[in-house]
TrEMBL record:
GO cellular component, one term: extracellular space
Keywords of the record: Signal
FAS1 domain sequence ranges: 1-160, 166-316, 325-486, 492-644
InterPro entries for the chain: Adhesion/Biosynth-related (IPR050904), FAS1_dom_sf (IPR036378), FAS1_domain (IPR000782)
Pfam families: Fasciclin
PANTHER family assigned to the protein according to its UniProt record, in alphabetical order: FI19380P1, PERIOSTIN-RELATED
Signal peptide limits: 1-26
Name of the molecule in the record: FAS1 domain-containing protein
Domain of life according to the entry: Eukaryota
């Protein structure tokens, strides 16, 4: 990929031409200067061949040529990006044959074959004046029969430009007979036209030919004007046919078909892909929405500026439904009843992905009313308190987002079925009557469901929600608004509801229920503590009689103290809630503390901080946090693998 391979023979000829200047320039200042050739010859490093006839442009001719290519001076040609151009120019200025042809031997209307495979036409006037006509322009011979070492030169006043070489992309599509329609499309967008006219273009462009455009319109049963000229997206379609990297046909044939080409059209900062496959001696190309209509390169390796143009026989169609304004984040912001969800998106690390229209997924977005009810159930003063807890926001968003796009009709078609959200767990969909499609959607959030479309109820691990507005179009994703916040297996309204949910905490749940004064606290969502919750295996490790003794009515006081020792004031999440390794935390048991050993590392994939916490009691064995950050109202629960014994109760 990148730079094309220059045919060795063409390079040799280009270098032969320029190297001839070394001896030609030495013949005298009165002759037209061809020092540019010497500079190019030194740059390319080749020597002339015996018996060649060379048409050498003057320095002034090269100066004019350089300006056409957008260069400040001829010295700017001394760049590797122009090797191909120099090779083709050289091949177009050297005649076929083993013996030099003097001016006297040139005849009017004679076709002179050049070593690149093209030919030049000689025009000879009655007074002997000679001019040379090429494919794109003509030149006058200003000094015939100039001896340049082993070669014979006819010095000319213009650089002859061969076929399939143009100073810009716009020049190419405008000049060619097979791309006139496409050339007209550049006029519809001034920005696109300016870029196409820039000789600095150095990538790849695929220009559909006129026949291919007419065929596209015929298949789509529309006029060309309706298909392209009247399209507000015409400028984007034109840009989609451009690649920032240069590919010759050979490079395209050798490129892996499993890796799409990155176009110059970016949506949400991500290049739209162009798909490709080798097709014998050519290459097939297609866009996101070409379906079965692939295009084939029918004219290859046309030089435009410092880039390459290929003519194709069918246009490439991108997925412009995924426009820059249509993304999950944009749709949420544009929907009035999703104000709290918009704030949650802004407060989480996944926002950048959800800003891209190329993101593919489904977001079940609770309405502001649903978040208000959720906040109340959690003991919060309002939805704003949700935004103060990043772990809570992450848990909620991750549970309401699934990695596939399910429009309203797909939900209805496949229900009942289950999916796994991004943060794990399960969501289940069951048929549930009709819902209103559309709601308060704006133009940026077009609805793809129909009124009275059959939709579903979304069933989470702890509760369920109905769909309020179905099918807000969000690029390659879909947003459905729902009437409740679905509770994942890491979010509960109280400590008690968390203990009741996890069967591995049944022993602790029973001990709490048997302790006067604790049941009310763990049932209250406003309780604000961090609970280190021993799992059932931790109690079993304390011996066969430990739980029975702790459960006895006579042990109420010591049981209360033991349970208080497992709680510290305030909600401390891992790792942000534990700032110091070796930090001593006061517990609810008066005059007793816990020591926290903290190890913080970075997730290799998400780069987010994660922590390993070891809790060291004052009078017993240490315990490791094995399940962190279970939100329980205003509290947080961490599952541990040991029972914490305070010094005041003796060593265990």
């Amino acid at each position: 990929m990148g730079r094309r391979g220059v045919p060795a023979r063409l390079l040799a000829v280009a270098l032969l031409v320029v190297a001839c200047a070394a001896s030609a320039a030495a013949q005298g200042a009165s002759e037209p200067s061809i020092k540019v050739f010497k500079a190019l010859g030194d740059f390319l490093g080749y020597k002339p061949q015996e018996g060649d006839t060379v048409f050498i442009p003057t320095d002034e001719a090269f100066g004019v040529f350089a300006k056409k290519w957008g260069l400040n001076s001829t010295s700017d040609l001394l760049q590797t990006r122009y090797l191909d151009l120099l090779a083709r120019l050289g091949a177009y200025h050297v005649a076929e044959g083993s013996a030099p042809v003097k001016a006297a031997g040139l005849k009017d209307a004679q076709q002179v074959a050049m070593i690149g495979g093209n030919s030049l036409k000689i025009k000879k006037a009655g007074d002997g004046a000679i001019s040379v006509e090429g494919a794109s322009n003509a030149a006058r011979v200003v000094q015939p029969d100039r001896v340049t070492g082993p070669a014979l030169a006819h010095v000319i006043d213009s650089v002859l430009v061969p076929p399939d070489v143009y100073p810009s992309l716009l020049d190419a599509v405008s000049s060619r007979n097979d791309t006139k329609l496409w050339a007209g499309f550049f006029d519809k967008d001034e920005g696109v036209k300016a870029r196409a006219a820039d000789p600095a273009f150095s990538g790849t462009y695929f220009a559909p030919n006129d026949e291919g455009l007419r065929e596209y319109a015929r298949l789509d049963n529309v006029t060309l004007k309706a298909a392209f000229e009247d399209s507000k997206d015409l400028g984007l379609i034109v840009v989609y046919h451009s690649l920032p990297i240069e590919y010759t046909l050979e490079a395209l044939r050798n490129a892996s078909a499993s890796q799409p080409l990155a176009s110059s059209l970016q949506i949400g900062g991500v290049p739209e892909p162009v798909y490709h496959e080798s097709n014998g001696s050519s290459v097939n190309l297609w866009g996101q929405l070409n379906l079965g209509d692939k295009s084939t390169i029918v004219a290859k390796d046309i030089l435009v500026g410092a880039g390459t143009l290929h003519v194709i026989d069918f246009p490439l169609i991108p997925d412009l439904a995924a426009s820059a304004s249509a993304s999950v984040a944009a749709v949420v912001r544009a929907t009035p009843e999703l104000g709290t969800m918009a704030k949650i998106l802004n407060g989480t690390g996944i926002l950048d992905e959800l800003e891209s229209p190329l993101f593919e997924g489904t977001l079940f977005a609770p309405t502001d009313e649903a978040f208000a009810a959720f906040a109340e159930s959690m003991g919060f003063d309002g939805p704003e308190e949700i935004l103060a807890s990043e772990p809570l926001m992450d848990a909620i968003l991750g549970y309401h987002l699934i990695p596939s796009a399910y429009p309203a009709d797909a939900l209805a078609k496949f229900a009942p079925f289950t999916v796994r959200p991004f943060t794990g767990g399960v969501l289940r969909f069951k048929p549930a009557g009709n819902a209103t499609a559309g709601g308060n959607a704006t133009a940026a959030a077009a609805v793809n469901a129909t009124v009275n479309a059959t939709v579903v109820t979304v069933v989470g691990g702890q509760n369920e929600a109905g769909i309020v507005t179905a099918g807000l179009d969000a690029g390659r994703s879909v947003v459905h608004t729902i009437d409740a916040v679905l509770l994942p297996e890491s979010v509960f309204t109280s400590i008690l509801s968390a203990l009741e949910f996890y069967s591995a905490s049944s022993v602790l749940q029973n001990l709490v229920a048997d302790t006067p004064g604790l049941l009310a606290a763990v049932s209250d969502p406003k309780t604000n503590v961090t609970l280190f919750a021993p799992r059932n295996e931790a109690f079993a490790a304390m011996g066969p009689n430990f739980v029975a003794a702790a459960s006895a009515p006579a042990a109420n006081a010591s049981r209360l103290e033991g349970l208080q020792y497992h709680a510290v004031p305030g909600a401390r999440f891992v790792p942000a809630g534990f700032t110091l390794d070796g930090e001593k935390l006061p517990t609810l048991l008066v005059n007793e503390t816990l020591t926290v050993d903290l190890e913080v590392s970075e997730d290799n994939v998400t780069k987010a901080e994660r922590g390993t916490v070891r809790v060291v009691p004052s009078g017993g064995r240490a315990a490791n946090v094995t399940l962190a950050n279970i939100v329980a109202g205003r509290s947080v629960v961490h599952g541990i693998d040991g029972v914490l014994i305070p010094k005041s109760m003796g060593n265990a």
